[in-house]
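Example for tutorial group B:
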């Protein structure tokens, strides 16, 4: 039997390698197209939610019509069409919707909005358990009787552990924690008071002023008393904000109240 020449074998193997390379390139191209289509579907679903979430966290205000549009956008967006990284954005938007329903006193919509937020937070926490914001919302959603127990306080404790000094979270967390202040253990009382001082130190004057406006005189004294731990400049600026809001009945430590002009 004749033996193929070495040049014939070389041609055969080179042709085989070329076919393999072409097949690999074709498969890679098909995979790239499929991935692009797959990613585009996620992108289309996630961009509106992420845009709304960013605006909410930037303290933009929304009209009733805009919030209704938010609700419709989420209603048309299934969690399966989103990547887990987008679940936090859904929770942010769901929180705004529930806060709006509570403010409007629309009890017939509150139950549904609360359940939708709870579901969104559960999914987001499973995807990103280190997000302090999600632990805070979990705590806020609990029944008041549960929040007064050690087990019920765990989400709030986790929120402080994960992000003890983050301004925008502090602005949300402090009012929630202060609402349960009498039932908090001593260690958490210290965290709440320190967080307020750090808010003022970081320049969150209006948020801190809103907190002062919402608590009783005794708690005001405790909160303002902790400001002796921060620098003089932010204390002076905060005192001006309080005076402008007619909230200067309890003095800021180290700040001398200016006498009223006689004219």
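The residue assignment follows.
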């Amino acid at each position: 039997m004749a033996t193929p020449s070495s040049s014939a074998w070389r041609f055969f193997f080179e042709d085989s390698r070329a076919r393999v390379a072409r097949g690999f390139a074709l498969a890679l191209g098909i995979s790239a197209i499929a991935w692009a289509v797959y990613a585009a579907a996620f992108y289309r679903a996630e961009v509106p939610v992420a845009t709304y979430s960013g605006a909410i966290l930037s303290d933009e205000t929304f009209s009733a019509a805009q919030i209704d549009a938010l609700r419709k956008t989420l209603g048309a967006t299934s969690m399966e069409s989103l990547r887990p990284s987008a679940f936090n954005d859904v929770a942010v938007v769901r929180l705004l919707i529930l806060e709006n329903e509570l403010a409007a006193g629309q009890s017939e919509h509150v139950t549904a909005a609360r359940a939708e937020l709870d579901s969104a937070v559960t999914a987001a926490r499973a995807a990103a358990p280190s997000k302090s914001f999600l632990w805070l919302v979990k705590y806020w959603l609990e029944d008041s009787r549960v929040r007064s127990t050690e087990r019920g306080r765990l989400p709030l404790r986790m929120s402080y552990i994960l992000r003890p000094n983050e301004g925008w979270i502090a602005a949300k967390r402090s009012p929630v924690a202060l609402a349960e202040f009498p039932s908090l253990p001593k260690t958490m009382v210290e965290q709440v008071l320190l967080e307020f001082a750090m808010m003022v130190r970081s320049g969150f004057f209006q948020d801190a002023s809103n907190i002062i406006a919402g608590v009783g005189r005794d708690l005001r004294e405790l909160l303002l008393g902790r400001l002796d731990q921060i620098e003089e400049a932010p204390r002076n600026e905060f005192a001006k904000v309080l005076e402008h809001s007619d909230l200067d009945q309890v003095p800021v430590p180290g700040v001398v109240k200016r006498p009223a002009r006689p004219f």
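The longest helix spans residues 6-57. Compare this with the pattern of hydrophobic and polar residues in the output above.
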